[in-house]
Inverse folding.
Protein backbone atom coordinates (compact mmCIF):
# COMPACT_ATOMS: atom_id res chain seq x y z
CA UNK A 1 0.00 0.00 0.00
CA UNK A 2 1.52 3.37 -0.98
CA UNK A 3 2.14 5.75 1.88
CA UNK A 4 1.61 9.48 1.83
CA UNK A 5 3.18 12.12 3.96
CA UNK A 6 0.55 14.81 4.59
CA UNK A 7 1.06 18.03 6.51
CA UNK A 8 -2.21 19.37 7.91
CA UNK A 9 -2.26 23.08 8.79
CA UNK A 10 -5.76 23.78 10.16
CA UNK A 11 -5.07 27.44 10.97
CA UNK A 12 -7.70 29.77 12.38
CA UNK A 13 -11.45 30.33 12.49
CA UNK A 14 -13.36 27.50 10.83
CA UNK A 15 -10.06 25.98 9.64
CA UNK A 16 -9.79 23.45 12.49
CA UNK A 17 -13.45 22.42 12.10
CA UNK A 18 -13.20 21.66 8.38
CA UNK A 19 -9.76 20.09 8.89
CA UNK A 20 -11.29 17.57 11.31
CA UNK A 21 -13.65 16.42 8.55
CA UNK A 22 -10.93 15.94 5.95
CA UNK A 23 -9.06 13.85 8.52
CA UNK A 24 -12.06 11.52 8.70
CA UNK A 25 -11.88 11.06 4.94
CA UNK A 26 -8.16 10.25 5.09
CA UNK A 27 -8.82 7.79 7.91
CA UNK A 28 -11.37 6.02 5.72
CA UNK A 29 -8.95 5.86 2.77
CA UNK A 30 -6.41 4.39 5.15
CA UNK A 31 -8.80 1.78 6.54
CA UNK A 32 -10.01 0.88 3.06
CA UNK A 33 -6.42 0.08 2.06
CA UNK A 34 -6.22 2.87 -0.56
CA UNK A 35 -3.07 4.27 1.02
CA UNK A 36 -1.45 4.89 4.31
CA UNK A 37 -1.90 8.55 5.22
CA UNK A 38 0.73 9.71 7.70
CA UNK A 39 -0.71 13.02 8.85
CA UNK A 40 1.45 15.53 10.69
CA UNK A 41 -0.07 18.71 12.08
CA UNK A 42 1.33 22.14 12.68
CA UNK A 43 0.17 25.68 13.37
CA UNK A 44 -0.27 28.49 10.88
CA UNK A 45 -1.72 31.99 10.88
CA UNK A 46 -2.96 33.54 14.11
CA UNK A 47 -2.66 30.20 15.91
CA UNK A 48 1.08 30.11 15.10
CA UNK A 49 1.43 33.77 16.03
CA UNK A 50 -0.12 33.14 19.45
CA UNK A 51 2.21 30.21 20.11
CA UNK A 52 5.43 31.42 18.47
CA UNK A 53 5.09 35.10 17.61
CA UNK A 54 5.26 34.35 13.86
CA UNK A 55 2.46 33.24 11.49
CA UNK A 56 4.47 30.20 10.36
CA UNK A 57 7.69 28.80 11.82
CA UNK A 58 10.78 27.74 9.86
CA UNK A 59 10.13 24.22 11.13
CA UNK A 60 6.60 24.21 9.69
CA UNK A 61 7.90 25.50 6.35
CA UNK A 62 10.47 22.68 6.33
CA UNK A 63 7.74 20.11 7.03
CA UNK A 64 5.66 21.62 4.20
CA UNK A 65 8.58 21.30 1.78
CA UNK A 66 9.10 17.66 2.73
CA UNK A 67 5.42 16.64 2.59
CA UNK A 68 3.82 14.91 -0.39
CA UNK A 69 1.00 17.43 0.01
CA UNK A 70 0.05 20.19 2.43
CA UNK A 71 -3.61 20.53 3.43
CA UNK A 72 -4.30 24.05 4.61
CA UNK A 73 -7.45 25.27 6.38
CA UNK A 74 -7.71 29.05 6.68
CA UNK A 75 -5.99 31.93 8.44
CA UNK A 76 -6.91 35.25 10.00
CA UNK A 77 -9.57 36.86 12.14
CA UNK A 78 -10.35 40.03 14.09
CA UNK A 79 -8.36 38.75 17.06
CA UNK A 80 -5.16 39.56 15.15
CA UNK A 81 -6.22 42.89 13.64
CA UNK A 82 -3.70 44.73 15.78
CA UNK A 83 -0.60 42.61 15.12
CA UNK A 84 2.30 43.94 13.02
CA UNK A 85 1.93 43.76 9.23
CA UNK A 86 4.90 41.42 8.82
CA UNK A 87 3.51 38.87 11.27
CA UNK A 88 -0.22 39.11 10.44
CA UNK A 89 -1.84 35.68 9.91
CA UNK A 90 -2.04 36.03 6.09
CA UNK A 91 1.73 36.46 5.96
CA UNK A 92 2.06 32.80 6.98
CA UNK A 93 0.15 31.69 3.90
CA UNK A 94 2.04 34.07 1.62
CA UNK A 95 5.39 32.81 2.96
CA UNK A 96 4.38 29.20 2.30
CA UNK A 97 3.38 30.09 -1.27
CA UNK A 98 6.64 31.92 -1.88
CA UNK A 99 9.05 29.54 -0.11
CA UNK A 100 7.51 26.47 -1.72
CA UNK A 101 7.46 28.18 -5.14
CA UNK A 102 3.72 27.53 -5.57
CA UNK A 103 3.27 29.66 -8.67
CA UNK A 104 0.26 27.88 -10.14
CA UNK A 105 -3.05 28.19 -8.32
CA UNK A 106 -5.89 26.10 -9.73
CA UNK A 107 -9.39 27.13 -8.67
CA UNK A 108 -12.10 25.05 -10.28
CA UNK A 109 -15.63 26.42 -10.08
CA UNK A 110 -18.06 23.60 -10.63
CA UNK A 111 -21.78 23.97 -10.08
CA UNK A 112 -23.20 20.67 -8.87
CA UNK A 113 -26.69 20.21 -10.39
CA UNK A 114 -28.15 19.88 -6.88
CA UNK A 115 -26.84 23.34 -6.01
CA UNK A 116 -27.98 25.31 -9.05
CA UNK A 117 -30.73 26.82 -6.89
CA UNK A 118 -28.24 28.04 -4.27
CA UNK A 119 -26.42 30.32 -6.69
CA UNK A 120 -27.30 33.99 -6.73
CA UNK A 121 -27.63 33.65 -10.52
CA UNK A 122 -30.48 32.02 -12.43
CA UNK A 123 -30.36 28.25 -12.68
CA UNK A 124 -29.90 28.19 -16.48
CA UNK A 125 -26.83 30.42 -16.24
CA UNK A 126 -24.95 28.19 -13.79
CA UNK A 127 -26.31 24.67 -14.16
CA UNK A 128 -23.51 22.45 -15.43
CA UNK A 129 -20.91 25.19 -14.99
CA UNK A 130 -17.35 23.86 -15.00
CA UNK A 131 -14.63 26.47 -15.27
CA UNK A 132 -11.08 26.56 -14.02
CA UNK A 133 -9.29 29.70 -12.92
CA UNK A 134 -5.52 29.42 -13.18
CA UNK A 135 -4.13 32.17 -11.00
CA UNK A 136 -0.44 33.15 -10.94
CA UNK A 137 0.43 32.96 -7.24
CA UNK A 138 4.00 34.02 -6.48
CA UNK A 139 4.36 37.26 -8.46
CA UNK A 140 2.57 40.46 -9.26
CA UNK A 141 1.48 43.06 -6.76
CA UNK A 142 1.41 40.56 -3.90
CA UNK A 143 5.20 40.31 -3.82
CA UNK A 144 6.52 43.17 -6.00
CA UNK A 145 9.06 45.56 -4.45
CA UNK A 146 9.00 48.33 -3.39
CA UNK A 147 6.06 47.66 -1.11
CA UNK A 148 6.00 50.32 1.57
CA UNK A 149 4.46 53.35 3.21
CA UNK A 150 6.84 56.32 3.37
CA UNK A 151 6.42 59.74 4.90
CA UNK A 152 7.12 62.57 2.47
CA UNK A 153 8.86 65.82 3.37
CA UNK A 154 5.45 67.50 3.43
CA UNK A 155 4.44 65.11 6.18
CA UNK A 156 2.00 63.40 3.85
CA UNK A 157 2.23 59.63 3.61
CA UNK A 158 2.70 57.71 0.38
CA UNK A 159 1.94 54.00 -0.07
CA UNK A 160 3.42 51.91 -2.88
CA UNK A 161 2.69 48.42 -4.11
CA UNK A 162 4.46 47.19 -7.20
CA UNK A 163 2.89 45.15 -9.97
CA UNK A 164 5.73 43.31 -11.66
CA UNK A 165 5.98 40.29 -13.98
CA UNK A 166 8.83 38.81 -15.97
CA UNK A 167 8.21 37.03 -19.26
CA UNK A 168 9.40 33.80 -17.63
CA UNK A 169 6.77 34.00 -14.90
CA UNK A 170 4.03 34.61 -17.47
CA UNK A 171 5.32 31.87 -19.77
CA UNK A 172 5.24 29.16 -17.08
CA UNK A 173 1.73 29.96 -15.84
CA UNK A 174 0.46 30.15 -19.43
CA UNK A 175 1.80 26.63 -20.05
CA UNK A 176 -0.03 25.31 -16.98
CA UNK A 177 -3.26 26.81 -18.34
CA UNK A 178 -2.78 25.46 -21.87
CA UNK A 179 -1.86 21.97 -20.61
CA UNK A 180 -4.96 21.86 -18.42
CA UNK A 181 -7.18 23.16 -21.23
CA UNK A 182 -6.09 20.17 -23.34
CA UNK A 183 -7.57 17.86 -20.69
CA UNK A 184 -10.84 19.83 -20.72
CA UNK A 185 -12.65 21.79 -23.45
CA UNK A 186 -9.46 23.09 -25.05
CA UNK A 187 -10.02 26.79 -24.55
CA UNK A 188 -7.97 29.40 -22.66
CA UNK A 189 -9.13 32.93 -21.87
CA UNK A 190 -6.33 35.20 -20.69
CA UNK A 191 -7.40 38.13 -18.50
CA UNK A 192 -5.29 41.27 -17.98
CA UNK A 193 -5.53 45.06 -18.24
CA UNK A 194 -3.34 45.75 -21.27
CA UNK A 195 -5.31 48.95 -21.86
CA UNK A 196 -3.87 50.46 -18.66
CA UNK A 197 -0.94 48.38 -17.43
CA UNK A 198 2.46 47.61 -18.95
CA UNK A 199 2.42 44.26 -17.17
CA UNK A 200 -0.85 43.60 -19.01
CA UNK A 201 0.77 44.32 -22.37
CA UNK A 202 3.59 41.88 -21.64
CA UNK A 203 1.15 39.31 -20.23
CA UNK A 204 -0.86 39.44 -23.45
CA UNK A 205 2.24 39.16 -25.68
CA UNK A 206 3.75 36.22 -23.82
CA UNK A 207 0.51 34.22 -23.56
CA UNK A 208 -0.09 34.81 -27.29
CA UNK A 209 3.44 33.68 -28.17
CA UNK A 210 3.26 30.52 -26.03
CA UNK A 211 -0.11 29.65 -27.56
CA UNK A 212 1.10 30.15 -31.15
CA UNK A 213 4.36 28.29 -30.68
CA UNK A 214 3.34 25.29 -28.63
CA UNK A 215 -0.44 25.08 -28.33
CA UNK A 216 -1.88 25.95 -31.75
CA UNK A 217 -4.60 23.35 -31.14
CA UNK A 218 -5.93 25.24 -28.08
CA UNK A 219 -8.35 28.10 -28.67
CA UNK A 220 -7.06 31.30 -27.06
CA UNK A 221 -8.85 34.54 -26.44
CA UNK A 222 -7.97 37.65 -24.47
CA UNK A 223 -10.30 39.53 -22.20
CA UNK A 224 -9.81 42.65 -20.11
CA UNK A 225 -9.99 41.66 -16.45
CA UNK A 226 -12.86 44.01 -15.61
CA UNK A 227 -14.84 42.71 -18.56
CA UNK A 228 -14.05 39.16 -17.42
CA UNK A 229 -15.65 39.92 -14.04
CA UNK A 230 -18.74 41.17 -15.84
CA UNK A 231 -18.86 38.19 -18.24
CA UNK A 232 -18.56 35.79 -15.29
CA UNK A 233 -21.87 37.00 -13.92
CA UNK A 234 -23.46 37.52 -17.35
CA UNK A 235 -22.65 34.28 -19.19
CA UNK A 236 -20.13 32.22 -17.17
CA UNK A 237 -20.40 29.07 -19.27
CA UNK A 238 -18.55 30.76 -22.16
CA UNK A 239 -15.32 30.04 -20.24
CA UNK A 240 -13.25 26.91 -19.88
CA UNK A 241 -9.83 27.88 -18.45
CA UNK A 242 -9.18 31.47 -17.37
CA UNK A 243 -5.50 32.36 -16.84
CA UNK A 244 -4.72 35.54 -14.98
CA UNK A 245 -2.34 37.28 -12.60
CA UNK A 246 -2.21 37.12 -8.83
CA UNK A 247 -4.50 40.04 -7.95
CA UNK A 248 -7.05 39.62 -10.75
CA UNK A 249 -7.11 35.89 -9.95
CA UNK A 250 -7.88 36.64 -6.33
CA UNK A 251 -10.87 38.75 -7.32
CA UNK A 252 -12.16 36.70 -10.24
CA UNK A 253 -12.03 33.48 -8.23
CA UNK A 254 -14.27 34.96 -5.52
CA UNK A 255 -16.75 35.92 -8.24
CA UNK A 256 -16.57 32.45 -9.75
CA UNK A 257 -17.03 30.90 -6.32
CA UNK A 258 -20.42 32.50 -5.82
CA UNK A 259 -21.63 31.11 -9.15
CA UNK A 260 -21.32 27.63 -7.68
CA UNK A 261 -23.72 28.37 -4.87
CA UNK A 262 -21.36 29.11 -2.01
CA UNK A 263 -17.81 30.06 -1.24
CA UNK A 264 -17.95 26.98 0.97
CA UNK A 265 -17.82 24.74 -2.11
CA UNK A 266 -14.56 25.80 -3.76
CA UNK A 267 -11.33 23.82 -3.35
CA UNK A 268 -7.97 24.89 -4.73
CA UNK A 269 -4.54 23.54 -5.53
CA UNK A 270 -1.31 25.51 -5.48
CA UNK A 271 1.52 23.82 -7.34
CA UNK A 272 5.23 24.38 -7.81
CA UNK A 273 7.35 23.39 -10.78
CA UNK A 274 8.12 19.65 -11.05
CA UNK A 275 11.68 18.69 -10.07
CA UNK A 276 13.86 16.15 -11.91
CA UNK A 277 11.84 13.24 -10.48
CA UNK A 278 8.57 14.92 -11.46
CA UNK A 279 7.76 15.71 -7.84
CA UNK A 280 6.27 19.16 -7.17
CA UNK A 281 5.64 21.06 -3.95
CA UNK A 282 1.93 21.49 -3.41
CA UNK A 283 -0.60 23.00 -1.04
CA UNK A 284 -4.34 22.46 -1.11
CA UNK A 285 -6.80 24.82 0.51
CA UNK A 286 -10.44 25.78 0.44
CA UNK A 287 -10.95 29.19 -1.20
CA UNK A 288 -13.17 30.34 1.66
CA UNK A 289 -11.41 32.16 4.46
CA UNK A 290 -11.47 31.62 8.20
CA UNK A 291 -15.06 32.94 8.52
CA UNK A 292 -14.62 34.15 12.11
CA UNK A 293 -18.32 35.04 12.29
CA UNK A 294 -19.31 31.37 12.26
CA UNK A 295 -16.18 29.82 13.77
CA UNK A 296 -16.67 27.36 16.61
CA UNK A 297 -20.37 26.82 15.84
CA UNK A 298 -19.97 23.58 13.85
CA UNK A 299 -21.98 24.99 10.95
CA UNK A 300 -19.18 25.57 8.41
CA UNK A 301 -19.34 23.67 5.13
CA UNK A 302 -16.40 21.20 4.97
CA UNK A 303 -16.90 20.35 1.27
CA UNK A 304 -14.28 22.79 -0.07
CA UNK A 305 -11.73 21.29 2.32
CA UNK A 306 -12.71 17.75 1.36
CA UNK A 307 -12.67 18.77 -2.32
CA UNK A 308 -9.14 20.04 -1.73
CA UNK A 309 -8.13 16.53 -0.65
CA UNK A 310 -9.60 15.25 -3.91
CA UNK A 311 -7.35 17.70 -5.77
CA UNK A 312 -4.36 16.47 -3.73
CA UNK A 313 -5.17 12.88 -4.69
CA UNK A 314 -5.29 13.93 -8.33
CA UNK A 315 -2.34 16.34 -8.64
CA UNK A 316 0.13 15.21 -5.96
CA UNK A 317 -0.57 11.60 -5.05
CA UNK A 318 -1.23 10.20 -8.52
CA UNK A 319 -4.63 8.82 -7.48
CA UNK A 320 -6.96 10.47 -9.97
CA UNK A 321 -9.34 7.54 -9.85
CA UNK A 322 -9.82 7.87 -6.08
CA UNK A 323 -10.22 11.64 -6.56
CA UNK A 324 -13.07 10.91 -9.00
CA UNK A 325 -14.74 8.71 -6.39
CA UNK A 326 -14.38 11.32 -3.68
CA UNK A 327 -15.83 14.03 -5.91
CA UNK A 328 -18.58 11.59 -6.85
CA UNK A 329 -19.28 11.06 -3.15
CA UNK A 330 -19.65 14.82 -2.65
CA UNK A 331 -22.12 14.88 -5.54
CA UNK A 332 -24.04 11.94 -3.99
CA UNK A 333 -24.34 13.72 -0.66
CA UNK A 334 -25.62 16.91 -2.29
CA UNK A 335 -27.93 14.88 -4.51
CA UNK A 336 -29.42 13.21 -1.43
CA UNK A 337 -30.37 16.64 -0.12
CA UNK A 338 -27.81 17.10 2.66
CA UNK A 339 -26.99 20.76 3.12
CA UNK A 340 -24.97 22.91 5.48
CA UNK A 341 -26.52 26.33 6.23
CA UNK A 342 -24.58 28.17 3.50
CA UNK A 343 -26.20 26.05 0.76
CA UNK A 344 -29.47 25.11 2.43
CA UNK A 345 -31.60 27.92 1.06
CA UNK A 346 -34.92 28.83 2.61
CA UNK A 347 -37.11 26.13 4.11
CA UNK A 348 -34.56 23.32 4.16
CA UNK A 349 -33.02 21.79 7.27
CA UNK A 350 -29.28 22.16 7.55
CA UNK A 351 -26.81 19.70 9.00
CA UNK A 352 -23.62 20.67 10.80
CA UNK A 353 -19.97 20.43 9.83
CA UNK A 354 -19.46 16.97 11.31
CA UNK A 355 -22.74 15.73 9.87
CA UNK A 356 -21.62 16.74 6.39
CA UNK A 357 -18.20 15.13 6.89
CA UNK A 358 -19.84 11.89 8.07
CA UNK A 359 -22.20 11.94 5.08
CA UNK A 360 -19.26 12.19 2.67
CA UNK A 361 -17.46 9.38 4.49
CA UNK A 362 -20.42 7.02 4.12
CA UNK A 363 -21.02 8.00 0.48
CA UNK A 364 -17.33 7.40 -0.24
CA UNK A 365 -17.44 4.05 1.55
CA UNK A 366 -20.23 3.00 -0.78
CA UNK A 367 -18.21 4.08 -3.81
CA UNK A 368 -15.10 2.20 -2.63
CA UNK A 369 -16.90 -1.13 -2.12
C1 LIG B 1 -7.03 33.81 -1.29
C2 LIG B 1 -7.04 34.74 -0.11
C3 LIG B 1 -5.61 35.19 0.18
C4 LIG B 1 -5.13 35.97 -1.04
C5 LIG B 1 -5.44 36.01 1.46
C6 LIG B 1 -5.94 35.24 2.68
C7 LIG B 1 -4.01 36.42 1.67
O1 LIG B 1 -7.91 35.80 -0.34
O2 LIG B 1 -6.31 32.78 -1.24
O3 LIG B 1 -7.74 34.08 -2.26
O4 LIG B 1 -5.39 37.17 -1.16
O5 LIG B 1 -4.47 35.36 -1.88
MG1 LIG C 1 -9.05 35.62 -2.13
Amino acid sequence: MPSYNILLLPGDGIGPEVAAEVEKVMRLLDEAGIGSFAVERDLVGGAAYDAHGVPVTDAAVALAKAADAVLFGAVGGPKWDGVGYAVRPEAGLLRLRKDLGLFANLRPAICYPALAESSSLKRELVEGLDILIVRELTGGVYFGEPKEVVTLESGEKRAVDTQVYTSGEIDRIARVAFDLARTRRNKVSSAEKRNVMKSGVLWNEVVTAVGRADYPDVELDHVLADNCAMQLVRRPKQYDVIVTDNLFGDILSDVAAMLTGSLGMLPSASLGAPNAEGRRASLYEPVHGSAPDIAGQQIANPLAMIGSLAMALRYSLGRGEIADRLEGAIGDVLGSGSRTTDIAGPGRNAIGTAGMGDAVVSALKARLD
